[in-house]
# Entry
Amino acid sequence: MIYDKLSNIGSYKGLNKNLDIAIAYITSHNLQELPSGKTLIDGENVYVNCMECETALLSSKEYEMHQEYMDIQIDLQGAERVITGDCSSMEMGQYNADRDCCFGQSTALADCTIGPENFIICMVGEPHMPGVALKNPETIKKCVFKVHK
# Structure
């Protein structure tokens, strides 16, 4: 996991070629102008999903994990908590290759507040629980960059 201020995202170039493409896009585009839905940046190697969604209470959430894509999550309006889990304690359900996702339980490692000024990168194989309400559920607007490993 990488959690930092959005103004520092350029510091993470050089970790992965597809991550570099995503970072270049983030630093050169107004994310507020992204249309809802999927926008291809480098075909299926790097793309972004922009959406409005409702945060939820922690008690109703599960961890998710991906095998092919890392996530860069950025809130454009509103804020959410993203909790990352311990890989060694995770108990994940059946992997869905079409959605590159499985859900399950883990022991929490970090609890991060995202928002318009922060971002989180959740690596491949790292359990994470996005969309947790800060206090009460609210509608947020966010973008999730999907970056192939």
In short: The longest strand covers residues 139-148. Residues 17-28 form the longest helix (12 residues). The chain is about 10% helix and 45% strand. The mean pLDDT is 96.
